[in-house]
Amino acid sequence: MTTDVLIVGAGPTGLTLALDLARRGTAVRIVDRSPAHPRTSRAKGPNPRSLEILADLGVADEVLAAGSAPLPMRVYRDHHPVAETDPWADATPTPAARFDRPWLIAQWRLEEILRARLAGHGVHVELGREVVGLMERAGGRHVDVTFAEGRAERARYVVGCDGAHSPVRKLLGITFDGTTAEDQVMVSGDVELDHEDLGRDRWHQWFDADGAVMLCPIPGTRTGWWFQAGPERDADGRPLAPTLDGFRRLFTRHTGLPGRHLTRAELLSTYRVNVRMADRYRVGRVLLAGDAAHVHAIAGGLGMNTGIQDAFNLGWKLGQVLAGQADAGLLDTYEEERLPVAAWTLDLTSDRLRATLEAIREPGGNLGSAMTPETAGLGIGYRWSSLAGTEADTEPGTEADTATRAPHPGNHSPGDRAPDAPCRDAATGERTHLYGTFAGPHTSVLGFGPASAAVLREVAATYGEEPGVRACRVYAAHEDHSTAEPGSLIDDQGHAAAAYGIGAGGSGLVVVRPDHHVGVVAPAGDAGSVREYLRRLHGAPGMVDAVR
User: Fold this and answer.
1) DSSP, residue by residue, 434-449
2) Is 325 helix (H, G, I), strand (E, B) or coil?
3) CA 279 – CA 284 distance, rounded (Å)
């Protein structure tokens, strides 16, 4: 039996990809070599861009309910509090972005939510299955996958989401160049701790000349905390492996509180700063995503988030190719777009780590130095991409543009993240937003102004029987919408038009990819640009010329 896509690794990256493919009707399987679902909690939760993706996949409400907003930070020196700060105090939702801050949730809980949603599509993680061989014959249409138990199976595509030590990457012979900072070491784990002096409404951080301890409450638990610290060291200065007793000694040394209050420690690990990335993301029918393709400093909390965003970029492209609607060359744009993002992320996180290490040398310095507007992920775009279509009076971007642009109404060029905007449903009058229209496995074509109606009719006539393309007329507040098609929107506050550069009373067309990035911005009557772009993504089923 041949499956469409075999995903190796059932962390957030693999689960996101599996869920995106499953809802498209793709035959997908996901395997993991672990004998049981891990309860790792190293990642503290999704950033705003990942929350948008989780909303599209239908799980954001559950994620929000299971987690908590990021907490203010209380900073200590020599056992005494010296400062409090809230890096997100001034963050507020905007018309262009509903999610204004990251969200705290244990990684194992996020994985539970994703697995439950995936199970609703009839897909379950296959545990205890380790991939030990991959073979793709020249000109072949599948990959032969060998498992440790000796079984061989086939898949049209394989995606390695199997972490920094990725066996899939090693089987492909892809290099993973970079550095490991042996002197930058941290021990971490999940602990049980109950002490009246440690309120669960703060992220407590002790930074002393001889080390540090950080304790952040784990949402959904009564006494669970994320514990991070500089390690104990032996007489030669080598870091010691983390243990419960070691955590108690570190806790007492830096907090001045009795170590007996720390009653349990599990998921213990030693973290060294690794900055590495693969030199390519695809070899034939095998691709890499997440930590299998890139690892970096934890400053900014971008590891899991970059993996989730890799998966969301890749999922729709695999879906289109497997459905026969796009040439396999579409998969080349995955590396074209995401490898530069990984390179930028490595630079950003390394810079934020340096800034944080410098900040905590001074009393009151804290982990807030790791957070910048860029770590929200909302500015990441692909202006250099071959999938970035046309826009009047603009030039193609370069890879340097990757994530340097804050999300605001002026950012609507091809390749940019598509801005959100509050609207009303034209049929019911109920409040909604553009991302509600974008949600789901389809490309969206927005039409502003009466002059866009003919092109929208053409799109609907051509692709109306398929779920892959959705045409949406966006009416200005003053326009008559009494004959509006189902799914049309009213831009009653003008935010949608402003977000896409449509002037008052103006018109235009915008094609938005399934991963919420702008494909084309065109004049309202430019059927050719829209037609050509949709052909590349969805094939050419014979356009009905409704414009004439």
Assistant:
1) HHHHH-SSSEEEEEES
2) coil
3) 15
